[in-house]
């Protein structure tokens, strides 16, 4: 378990993280979201013992990150922002070094397993500084999982990866998620929806929301709205606005979205379409829009 207790980090008069408290249980994949400058990376660095908190603390599997930092770090794998490493080393030498530093009983076996999972066999003898950004990120992920940690802290794990590589990393996270704690700091909303079962949003270092991805989407004003694409959206909006199930209508180009005032909006809209014989190119029931919820929660706060 991760327990963050009133974590606070100040730089002079600037508060980067402000009294942040939360817990994360095994089996949870936590998406840690926030605009730029929200305090995401600072929180990750405090959780992993790389940055001392100004106040408060955190415990990883019962080990305090301040008073028992070494034991806490042993339980964690950490992919820092930018995936830093030793550029002059080859991939294989770097992973061997990390294995020895971790005190692994069989570092060669651990290296082989990590290399296979991250598809690094083709660059094993290549110096890290010559790798693409995507491969450097995969090397960073490999060192994070090398010792099969109980807790994984991943800061922007798919940054720089192409779509196929992103899919592979997300599948890796899903495979490991059942018995581990995984915390992913990201600004990519699609990534959170794809792999996370819990979402926390922070802004200016403060916790703004804590929910499941589905719960976050359900907060959207688009939740259970109906969107149509058709030739005469203004005329359709006038007609549909008369329905008791419709609260309001909005037009964006050829798209018309009607928002629910009551249950049964989609059947009511479908009935009108059939009765009027409208030529509708697209009709969809909206689950909600994560990006709109994110903007509302953070109030556009950034940097």
Automatic annotation (TrEMBL):
Residues 2-229 form the ABC transporter domain. Keywords: ATP-binding, Nucleotide-binding, Transport. Coiled coil: none annotated. It comes from the Bacteria. One of its GO terms (molecular function) is ATP binding. Pfam families: ABC_tran. Belongs to the ABC transporter superfamily. This is ATP-binding cassette domain-containing protein. The lineage of its organism: Bacteria, Pseudomonadati, Pseudomonadota, Gammaproteobacteria, Chromatiales.
């Amino acid at each position: 378990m991760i327990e963050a207790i009133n974590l606070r980090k100040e730089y002079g008069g600037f508060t980067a993280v402000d009294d942040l408290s939360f817990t994360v249980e095994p089996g949870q994949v936590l998406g840690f979201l926030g605009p730029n400058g929200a305090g995401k990376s600072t929180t990750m660095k405090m959780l992993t013992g790389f940055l001392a908190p100004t106040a408060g603390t955190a415990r990883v599997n019962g080990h305090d990150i301040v008073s028992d930092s070494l034991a806490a770090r042993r339980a964690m794998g950490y992919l820092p922002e930018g995936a830093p490493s030793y550029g002059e080393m080859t991939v294989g030498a770097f992973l061997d070094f990390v294995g020895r530093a971790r005190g692994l009983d069989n570092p060669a076996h651990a290296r082989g397993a990590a290399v296979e999972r991250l598809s690094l066999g083709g660059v094993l003898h290549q110096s890290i500084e010559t790798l693409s950004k995507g491969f450097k990120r995969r090397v960073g992920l490999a060192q994070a999982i090398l010792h099969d940690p109980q807790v994984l802290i991943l800061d922007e794990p798919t940054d720089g990866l192409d779509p196929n590589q992103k899919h592979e990393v997300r599948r890796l996270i899903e495979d490991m998620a059942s018995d581990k704690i995984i915390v992913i700091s990201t600004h990519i909303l699609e990534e959170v929806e794809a792999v996370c079962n819990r979402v926390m949003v922070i802004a200016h270092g403060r916790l703004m929301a804590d929910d499941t991805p589905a719960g976050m989407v359900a907060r959207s004003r688009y939740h259970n709205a109906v969107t149509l694409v058709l030739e005469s959206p203004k005329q359709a909006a006038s007609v549909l606005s008369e329905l008791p199930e419709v609260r309001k209508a909005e037009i964006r180009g050829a798209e018309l979205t009607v928002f629910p005032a009551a249950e049964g909006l989609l059947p009511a809209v479908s009935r009108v379409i059939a009765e009027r014989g409208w030529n509708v190119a697209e009709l969809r029931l909206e689950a909600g829009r994560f990006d709109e919820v994110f903007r509302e929660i953070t109030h556009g706060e950034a940097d």
